[in-house]
Specification:
- The protein is an alpha/beta fold and 166 residues long.
- It has a domain of 111 residues: NagB/RpiA/CoA transferase-like (Rossmann fold), CATH 3.40.50.
- The strands form 3 sheets. It has a 7-stranded mixed sheet.
- The protein is globular, with a radius of gyration of 15 Å.
């Protein structure tokens, strides 16, 4: 939340954490409380992942038992400029590579949101120098842990005073 680009984003995609994933619930509370940002969550729709506007308390059990918005909740448009997507992962690397859980939902969904800043969140112990990646793997622009903040993509808007990667 301290990152200036995060504070400027009006649309923030979060996720309901499963076991072994970093829980972004604290971000949901802050976003929902500030009144200036809207929160969205992924919903599995067939083989696709779509993002619907919702608050954390509105999520219902979905496919695979993961909490998700209802199908009636408003969809996030693909062309919004001020959007951040918080992405879970089993692991990340210092080049923005991500190891997911193997079903490819995020890798299929994220390319449609060409203007979104993608932030992978993980525990520090799950960040390595390099992961093997495939051509369909969508890299993160930023990798954030409990200790560090790595702006991987130089096109991402970083400003003096933003947390550094150490």
């Amino acid at each position: 939340m301290a990152w200036a680009a995060f504070r400027r984003a009006r649309h923030v995609v979060l996720y309901a954490a499963r076991a072994a994933e970093v829980d972004p619930g604290h971000l949901a509370v802050l976003i929902e409380g500030n009144g200036e940002q809207a929160s969205y969550y992924p919903r599995v729709d067939g083989d696709d992942l779509v993002f619907h506007r919702a608050r954390l308390h509105e999520l219902v059990p979905g496919r695979f038992g993961i909490a998700e918005p209802t199908a009636e909740a408003p969809l996030l448009a693909h062309d919004v400029d001020d959007m951040i997507v918080i992405v879970p992962g089993v692991g990340f690397d210092r080049a923005g590579g991500r190891l997911g859980t193997g079903k490819g939902y995020y890798d299929r969904a994220l390319p449609a949101y060409t203007r979104a800043t993608r932030i992978g969140i993980s525990l520090e112990t799950c960040v390595v120098d390099r992961l093997p990646t495939d051509s369909w793997d969508v890299p993160m622009h930023v990798v954030a842990t409990e200790r560090d903040f790595l702006v991987v993509d130089p096109r991402v808007d970083a400003h003096p005073g933003d947390p550094p990667w150490t």
